[in-house]
Design goal:
The chain is mainly α. Helices cover 64% and strands 0% of the residues.
């Protein structure tokens, strides 16, 4: 058997092992509690008047925001909204 044929054979064996039912990647993660439906979550947020807003920030600033949100015991979204409101009114 040639070296390339051996590599193909090994690849086929690996692909067959991956396609076996129950051996899928992330099977353990699916055993956890189901995540909330994203569509329902978006509808709830839309009803509250929330709009997704992506921003690129410096890593150090993000770390400070995360630490402050943990310290205060509030969600990051609420903290950022509060800080933006204070900054805009000043």
């Amino acid at each position: 058997m040639k070296k390339t044929d051996l590599a193909k054979s090994d690849a086929k064996k690996l692909m067959n092992q991956m396609s076996v039912k129950g051996a899928a990647f992330g099977a353990a993660a699916s055993a956890k509690a189901p995540a909330p439906d994203r569509r329902e979550q978006r509808e709830r947020e839309r009803a509250l008047g929330l709009v997704p807003f992506a921003v690129k920030l410096n890593g150090d600033l993000v770390k400070q925001l995360q630490d402050l949100s943990k310290e205060r015991g509030v969600e990051l979204n609420g903290l950022v909204a509060e800080l933006l409101q204070k900054g805009m009114s000043a």
